[in-house]
Structures are given as C-alpha cells and as structure tokens.
Amino acid sequence: MIGHALWYSSRATGLVSLLLLSATVVLGALNTGRLFSRSWPRFAVAAVHRNLSLISLVFLTVHVATAVIDPYAGIGWLDAIVPFGSVYRPLWLGLGAVAGDLFLAILATSLLRQRLGARLWRLVHWASYLCWPVALLHGLGTGTTDRHTVWVIALDVGCVLVVAGAIAWRLLSVHPDTTARRGGRVTS
Questions:
Q1: 183 by DSSP, 3-state: which?
Q2: Residues 79 and 63 sit within 8 Å (Cβ to Cβ)
Q3: Per-residue pLDDT tens listing for the chain (188 residues)
Q4: DSSP secondary structure of 100-169
Q5: What burial class does residue 1 get, using C-beta atoms within 10 Å of its C-beta: 0-12 exposed, 13-18 middle, 19+ buried?
Q6: Spacing of C-alpha 121 from chain mean position
Q7: Number of CB atoms found within 10 A of residue 87's CB
Q8: How far is the C-alpha of 149 from the C-alpha of 172, rounded, in Å?
Q9: For the chain, what are the domain ranges?
Q10: Which residue among 32, 47, 85, 142 sits deepest, i.e. has the most Cβ atoms within 10 Å of its Cβ?
Q11: pTM of this prediction?
C-alpha cells in the first residue's frame, strides 16, 4: 500500500515539476524579452519567476525522494545526482539527474548572483534552455505508464508549445535596451 502511495507521489510531483519548470522558463524568457505592463511590471515578473523556481525545487525534491524511497525500482540517492549509473532505466534516469544537476546549478548561481557577477550568472543561466528539454525527455522516457495517457500527452504537448512560443517570442523580440546591451545602435 505504501509502495503505491510513493509511486503515485513520485509520478504526480514529476508532472507538477514539469509544469512549474515550464512556467519558470516561460516567465524567464518573457522577462528577458522585456515583456511587462502596468499591471505586471518587470520586477513582479522577476519575483514570480524566482518564486516559481523555488517552488519547483520543493516539488523536485519530493519527486526524487519518493522515487528513491520507493523500493520498486531500486533507485539510490547517488543515482539522483550522478547521471547514467542507475540499474533502473539508466538513460532516462540519467537524463533526470542531468536536468536536476543543471537546475541546482542554476538556482545556486541565482542565489549567489551578487557575488558571481552578471556575466557568469548569465552563462550558467543559459543552461535553463538545456535543463527544460532534458527534464521533459526524462519524463517521457521514465513515465512508461503515463506517456500513453491522453491527459499526460496533452500536458506534455502544452508545455512544449508554451515554452517554444515563449522562447520564439524572446528570440524575435526587439527592445531598445536589448539592442544597446548587444552593442547595437539605438535609434529613436
């Protein structure tokens, strides 16, 4: 009975982690693209982005803990940190470890941003664009029971579309501040 609860908890927190991570990536892309309004100033978008990242960490921690505590797959604590060493689905679990490690690096450097400097922080923060698809692939590969469920497929496709749309908008957005930071000339 407890095994089923751990299994369901791990699956549920994994899916919630994907949703939260997707929302975090979307808000990060929108914020760096300088999307804001009177009702959503940039500092508010940045605050929600930061807080969603921290909430994502909580759900990711529960996801990993329930997967490790559940005896079914025999996943160890080290498997959650060191990629591709697990006896249970080493590729897919390894991708989860890679995504988790990247996520922790991104969060740690964000908490230390004032001490690291903007250039190093930005370099590590670019790993967000790698962390998200790796986490998605981890879920698709390990979620054998769920990946054929209509609502999980819809959730995955929805996350892909929203994240892709936000990143496309970010790449195509032109703002005088962005142009100036890239060394371009600002014309008014």
A1: coil
A2: no
A3: 676 899 889 999 999 999 999 999 999 888 877 666 677 777 888 889 899 999 999 999 999 999 999 988 889 999 999 999 999 899 999 999 999 999 999 999 988 988 988 888 888 888 888 999 999 999 999 877 777 889 999 999 999 999 999 999 888 887 666 566 656 554 54
A4: HHHHHHHHHHHHTHHHH-HHHHHHHHTTHHHHHHHHHHHHHHH-TTTTTSHHHHHHHHHHHHHHHHHHHH
A5: exposed
A6: 17
A7: 11
A8: 34
A9: 2-181
A10: 142
A11: 0.86
CA–CA distance, 47 with 59 (Å, rounded to integer)? 19
d(CA 107, CA 105): 5
Phi first, then psi: what are they for 110, rounded to 5°?
-70, -40
Q: Angle at which helices 150-172 and 2-32 pack, to 10 degrees?
A: 20
